[in-house]
Amino acid sequence: MKWGDLISLEYGKPVKDKVSKNGPVPVYGTNGQIGTSYLPPLCKYPSFIVGRKGAYRGIHYSKVPFSVIDTAFYVKPISDIIDLKWAYYKFLTYDINRMDSGSAIPSTDRYEIYGIDVEIPSIIEQKKVVKILDSLENKILINNEINDNLEQQAQAIFEKEFLEVQTLPEGWKQASLIDIAEYLNGLAMQKYRPSDREIGIPVLKIKELRQGCCDDSSELCSPNIKSNYIIHDGDVIFSWSGSLLVDLWCGGICGLNQHLFKVTSTKYDKWFYYAWTKYHLNRFIAVAADKATTMGHIKRDELKKAKVLIPEEGAYKRIGKLLKPTYDLIITNRIENKQLSMARDTLLPMLMAGKIDISAIHF
To answer: What is the C-alpha to C-alpha distance for residues 28 and 42, in angstroms, rounded to an integer?
Structure first.
């Protein structure tokens, strides 16, 4: 059969209050959710969204009724032999960004999609495939929700223990970020390409830090660069130029590119220098935005100006017993999500192609 016999790609429409943050109706664009709305949903049932305009057009699923702006389609079933969640997973195996209508702005031609041949298994088989893939997706979502909660707990603890201090307790000291950690700038990795005899490792750039992982478009560098420029899961990375960001890297081994700091310390624990660096991020962003005095980045002098409080040993250990396991669990959950994502991405095309026997699965 062809997709045109099974689904209809419906145009999105402008949503006046899409900037709402707490509305009951999610609003999607070509790259995913862009806000919420209090207006009635355009699509009144769970379905998926297909990016229509833009250099990157994604595929996204909503498990609740939703709205779509005019840069994307939403999918309407026109046959009862198709499970929409199965169809969503099938669409993830397509590269819709290669489907271009030829207009001035890259865009998806829905009639090209309608003409794609698709082999449809029985509804029972479709639901089995969905069950397998959903089990992975749901665990990823649960881990993300847990991590969101852990981040909020960690922030609350940090604020209570450090930011609400009115007078400096006995034995505490004032210092700066540069006093509690080392900020190692990365290398110009184009100078360290892997040789023909080496298996390269991905280069960690701002793009990879922002998306939380490396991908097929990531550049490669030699694995034989100095060891302190090798990044591992759990390392604290600070993008100090362009898109300023501080995060716990959990995207596997890679090489540290310039414009990124690897933050370490021989004196203090990770929870301590990570929390303080992250605390100063908003100020750093404001400094970098003042391009009259900067080039869109922060200088090391700003690290010296970033004040921190160093507790006396007993208080430091007490606070560490609260924050260290919190951040350790965040890292563990992120690493697990990476493994789950890899398993999903491996299984997805095989399941969709019918290369895995799922006859024994019952539900």
So the answer is: 11
pTM assigned to the model? 0.86
- Cβ partners under 8 Å of residue 178, min gap 6: 300, 303, 304, 306
Q: Please list the pLDDT of the chain residue by residue as tens digits (363 residues).
A: 999 999 999 999 999 999 888 999 999 999 999 999 999 999 999 999 999 988 788 999 999 999 999 999 999 999 999 999 999 999 999 988 887 766 667 788 899 999 999 999 999 999 999 999 999 999 999 999 999 999 999 999 999 999 999 899 999 999 999 999 999 999 999 999 999 999 999 999 999 999 999 988 899 999 999 999 999 999 999 999 988 999 999 999 999 999 999 999 999 999 999 999 999 999 999 998 886 666 678 889 999 999 999 999 999 999 999 999 999 999 999 999 999 999 999 999 999 998 888 877 766
- Residue 306, token pair as written in the block: 């970033």
